Amino acid sequence: MVTPNPPLESPSGEGTRNVPRLNCFLEISILGDFSVHHQLWLSSPFTDHPGELAFNFAVLHDLEQLVQHPTHIPDCLGDTTNILDLFLTSNPSAYAVTLSSPLGSSNHNLISVLSYFSNPSSRSLKVEGCPHTTTTTTTTTTTTTTTRL
What's an example of a GO molecular-function annotation for this chain (predicted)? Predict the structure, then answer.
């Protein structure tokens, strides 16, 4: 049986769940339409509470946000371009993110993620900070494409 961790107090006073810290055996990648706003992190015109939470989560878990250009295309009067679709990862050197024109009538640009996966049969290197593990140096590639219709 899994017991949830006790809530921690965030600087805003709201309780958050304690998500285990990453260790050298894990790689996390999260891609999605977060629809959050953060002035400094995402170049949004303002920062909202979900934007603060997403930013704090990324910092707490050493995740880097790889989408660097606006993904939302204004479709209503008063809308502005924003980075609403995020790709957070603990291994930024393993991915390349590109944006393309939207598909169909979507108001979000298409996000393509090129991933480099390790090949277990290649030579190995020690992972910094993890004395008993190794990682491989050769790569293969796959492409993941995400859009919101």
Answer: catalytic activity
